[in-house]
Amino acid sequence: MGVLDFTSALYLDMRHPSAALAPWAAFTLGKPAALAEPPGAASLARGLAELLGCEAALLLPSTLHLYWDLFGMLAQESVALLIDGGAYPVARWGAQQAVARGAPMQVFRHGDAAGLARLARRWRAEGRRPVVLADGYSPGREHPPPLSAYADIAARGGGWLVLDDTQPLGLLGRHGGGSVPLHGLGRALGVAAGAAVGAMSGSAGTQLSLPAGRAVLVGASLAKAFGAPLAVLAGSAAMLARFEARSLTRVHASPPSAAAMAAARHALCVNAACGDALRLALRQRVGQFRAGMAAAGIASRGGMFPVQVVPLADGVDAPALQAALRAEGVLALPQVHRGAAGLTFLLRAGHSAQDVARAVDALEHHMKELA
After folding, report:
1. Which residues are registered as beta bridge partners of 235?
2. What does the pLDDT profile of the chain (371 residues) look like in tens digits?
3. Which of 150, 201, 270, 308 gets the highest tally of CB atoms within 10 A of its CB?
4. How far apart are alpha carbons 321 and 171 in whole angstroms?
5. Which of 207, 360, 234, 220 has its CA nearest to residue 290?
C-alpha cells in the first residue's frame, strides 16, 4: 500500500508541473515592481480581481509583503486596529506596522459582531476609524465569521475590513472566488448582504456587480487551493492605486517570479475548466470523512471545510497515535487547537473514496488501541 498524505494544503491538487506551464524568458527582471512589472502581471491581476469580485488587484511575492505595506499605509490615517481572535499570525505580524506607528490595537472574540460594534463605536467617538482584521475562514471552526456584519460595522465607522482570504480562495464562493462573492461583500457600502450561500458547492450564489465595496480589502495567498506561491491584494481601484503609490516592498523587493506567475495563470485556467468539479469531489471526500468519523463515534471539527481536526482525549498520546498511523502509511498532523491536542487531516480533491476509508479505519483502530 502506498503512503496517504493528509498533511498538504493543496486542497484542489493543483500541482503545476513545469511541462504544463508556459515558458518564460527570464525568471526575474532583476528590478523591483515599482520600476517594472513582470510580463503578464497586469492581465493576471485582472483575472484574479474578476474571480474575487473586486474592481482591481495587485500581485505581491507573499502575504507578509502584502500586510506589511497595507497596514503601514492604513496607519497613515487615524485608525484603531480591531482584530478577530481567529485571525492568522501572518496578517497580525503586518498589523504590528500600524501599532509601531501609534495605532491602538484590540482583539475581540472570534465571530463576536456585537463586541466589534461596541469597540468600533468607542474608537470612532475618539476620532479613530476602525480597521477590522479577520480571516475569511479559520481552519477547525464550524463556520466562517459574520463577515457581512464586520464589513457593515467597518463602513459605518468610516473604516475598512481587511480580509485574509487565503483559506477560502479557490474553495468557497462562486467559482472559488472566496469570501467576497460568498458573503455578498461586493454590494453597496453600509448594506449587509444577508446570509452566505452554499459554502463549497461552487454554485452560482450571490451575483456581484463590480466594483466591490470600497470598505473591503482582500489579501490572499494562492499557495493553498491554487498551488501558486504568490499573493494578491484586491479591492477598489482607488485603494489599490493608493497602495501601489505607497508600497515600500514594491520599491525594495522583487515582484513574484515568472514561475510563480505562470503557475497562477495555469491555476486560473484549470479553475475555469474544471474547478467546480474539483470542488464537488473535495466536498464529497470531506462528507465521507465526517460520516466515517461519526459512525466510529469520533468527533471531528471543521464543518465542510477540508481541514478536519480530530480532538484527542487527555489519555491519548498524540505523537504515539501519529506514529502508529504513519506505520500504516497514513500521514496526519498532530497540533494543538485552542489549548487541546488534536490530529488534523487535510483532505484534497485527489483523495479517493478508498483513501478516506482507509484513513478512517486506521484512525478508529489506533485510537481505541491507545485510549
Report:
1. 56
2. 789 999 999 999 999 999 999 999 999 999 999 999 999 999 999 999 999 999 999 999 999 999 999 999 999 999 999 999 999 999 999 999 999 999 999 999 999 999 999 999 999 999 999 999 999 999 988 899 999 999 999 999 999 999 999 999 999 999 999 999 999 997 533 333 332 223 333 333 333 333 334 589 999 999 999 999 999 999 999 999 999 999 999 999 999 999 999 999 999 999 999 999 999 999 999 999 999 999 999 999 999 999 999 999 887 888 899 999 999 999 999 887 667 888 999 999 999 999 999 999 999 999 888 77
3. 150
4. 30
5. 360
| Whether residue 211 has a cis bond before it, omega within 30° of 0 | yes
Which three cell numbers, joined as nine digits, stand for 152?
A: 457593515
Q: What would the CATH number be for the domain defined by 4-9+275-370? A: 3.90.1150.10
Q: Where are the domains of the chain?
A: 4-9+275-370, 28-256
The grid coordinates listed for 37 are 512589472
Residue in this structure with the C-alpha cell 464543518, named with its chain if needed: 303
CA pair distance 12, 298, nearest whole angstrom: 26
- Could you tell me which of 260, 258, 282, 277 has the C-alpha nearest to residue 351? 282
3-class SS letters over 258-275 = HHHHHHHHHHHHHHHHHH
Segments in the chain forming alpha helices (H): 41-52, 63-74, 89-100, 113-125, 147-156, 179-183, 237-246, 249-252, 258-295, 318-327, 353-370
pTM equals 0.90
Handedness of CA 208, 212, 213, 215 (dihedral sign): positive
- The bridge status of strand 340-346 relative to strand 307-311 is antiparallel
Nearest to 132 by CA among 143, 146, 142, 141: 146
Q: How far apart (Å, rounded) are the C-alpha atoms in residues 368 and 371?
A: 5
Q: What angle do CA 349, 352, 356 make, to 5 degrees?
A: 100
CATH number, span 28-256: 3.40.640.10
- How far is CA 6 from each of CA 114, 201, 289, 337, 359, rounded to the nearest angstrom? 37, 22, 12, 17, 9
Cα distance from N-terminal residue to C-terminal residue, the chain: 26
